[in-house]
């Protein structure tokens, strides 16, 4: 859609390409041989956590070759610190259950086949050799060379590789490390450092662009309502937030052969687009229950569900009163019962989705508790 | 933990790496004094022999093969006697048979890439600051 070809790391307003289009980038599906320094500094996506961006490319998995500089062993996993010369990163390597030193498989085999098994092939000893090979391949000491591939995770503020594959590399004359050092700069020059260009067909997908725009608009509104702790608002108050989305839109219809305009393509059409976008976004927020219109009248006032103290109190009072009654004492009130009570007492326009959010908020505050999937009671 | 950046022995001797920083370098093992836990690595460059002392306390016992190529990973410290630096090894691996010319080319290839990118390896921290924050 809008990704600029500028260097994303320098441009603080660089926008991520929409997640729907990430699959178009071959790097998204590959184990990328990035330097550890770059892995540690990639920016995390704000659309999907666990995906990172290097130079506008969405990165999911990496492939690292480096020296083990520290090691932590637990019963189920190793945590190796891998140093490739540009940085050090944690690598979480799970131990393979089936190769645990138990001796049972070998003895089972021996019992099953006995020593009268074929002379050339003794399953028990072959299995033992296999286990030893597996053991030596996964148990590394400091100074040994480790190859690790897997997705990147950020855990406790630290980047880590969750190894899907890892093994000790035998490199007595540094041949592997040298070829790695020669190849990786080439990979960078040829792939990683070239920005991710969406070709024009991807950008002009009408459906895609519309839903992408809507997605962005709702996100902008949600972030705004959350940051500014808004309790109530009118559409006019938030209209301007969506202005940049509308003015940056590429020419929509193919029939308009206007020369490439700058920011806005004329006040009337862009204002209409803005109103339309705003309406649709507000409808989505209502459908999700994040906002509701307490009173439906000329004056379009939206209440932010979770900040409406009166609504929260009303729901709490309903539960408090009803749960005293014998009918609801044991099991609590069903959500639909609460919904009809709220609609009678507070506002006819509270949706089930909004009520769910309210109940969640009250439960987080320990004012109420859910007794079953759809029953709640007062605490 | 700071990464152990590749440096050549002559660069280490000329103070290319700050005290306390990690470094990775290589050379031929010319001598080993087990009682002092000191080894000396040497490399020829530009018609000169360059040597550096390696403190081997953390990597002992190791099987010293005099004349073989070794790669060392460790921290730079002031040499005893105050003259020059030494490497306090955390890793000391024999890589005898390594193609030195190719290794040097590999290191230079990586460096020229980073130079193209507009940052020096030692400046990785400042370059990272300029990028998008985590």
TrEMBL record, chain A:
<dbReference type="GO" id="GO:0000781">
    <property type="term" value="C:chromosome, telomeric region"/>
</dbReference>
<feature type="domain" description="Stn1 C-terminal">
    <location>
        <begin position="213"/>
        <end position="379"/>
    </location>
</feature>
<feature type="region of interest" description="Disordered">
    <location>
        <begin position="248"/>
        <end position="270"/>
    </location>
</feature>
<dbReference type="Pfam" id="PF09170">
    <property type="entry name" value="STN1_2"/>
</dbReference>
<keyword id="KW-0539">Nucleus</keyword>
<dbReference type="InterPro" id="IPR014647">
    <property type="entry name" value="Stn1"/>
</dbReference>
<dbReference type="GO" id="GO:0005634">
    <property type="term" value="C:nucleus"/>
</dbReference>
<dbReference type="InterPro" id="IPR015253">
    <property type="entry name" value="CST_STN1_C"/>
</dbReference>
<protein>
    <recommendedName>
        <fullName>CST complex subunit STN1</fullName>
    </recommendedName>
</protein>
<dbReference type="GO" id="GO:0003677">
    <property type="term" value="F:DNA binding"/>
</dbReference>
<comment type="function">
    <text>Component of the CST complex. The CST complex binds single-stranded DNA with high affinity in a sequence-independent manner, while isolated subunits bind DNA with low affinity by themselves.</text>
</comment>
<keyword id="KW-0238">DNA-binding</keyword>
<keyword id="KW-0158">Chromosome</keyword>
<comment type="subunit">
    <text>Component of the CST complex.</text>
</comment>
<dbReference type="InterPro" id="IPR040260">
    <property type="entry name" value="RFA2-like"/>
</dbReference>
<keyword id="KW-0779">Telomere</keyword>
TrEMBL record, chain B:
<dbReference type="GO" id="GO:0010521">
    <property type="term" value="F:telomerase inhibitor activity"/>
</dbReference>
<dbReference type="GO" id="GO:0032211">
    <property type="term" value="P:negative regulation of telomere maintenance via telomerase"/>
</dbReference>
<dbReference type="GO" id="GO:1990879">
    <property type="term" value="C:CST complex"/>
</dbReference>
<dbReference type="InterPro" id="IPR029146">
    <property type="entry name" value="Ten1_animal_plant"/>
</dbReference>
<keyword id="KW-0539">Nucleus</keyword>
<keyword id="KW-0238">DNA-binding</keyword>
<dbReference type="Pfam" id="PF15490">
    <property type="entry name" value="Ten1_2"/>
</dbReference>
<comment type="similarity">
    <text>Belongs to the TEN1 family.</text>
</comment>
<feature type="region of interest" description="Disordered">
    <location>
        <begin position="114"/>
        <end position="134"/>
    </location>
</feature>
<protein>
    <recommendedName>
        <fullName>CST complex subunit TEN1</fullName>
    </recommendedName>
</protein>
<dbReference type="GO" id="GO:0042162">
    <property type="term" value="F:telomeric DNA binding"/>
</dbReference>
<keyword id="KW-0779">Telomere</keyword>
<dbReference type="GO" id="GO:0003697">
    <property type="term" value="F:single-stranded DNA binding"/>
</dbReference>
<dbReference type="InterPro" id="IPR012340">
    <property type="entry name" value="NA-bd_OB-fold"/>
</dbReference>
<keyword id="KW-0158">Chromosome</keyword>
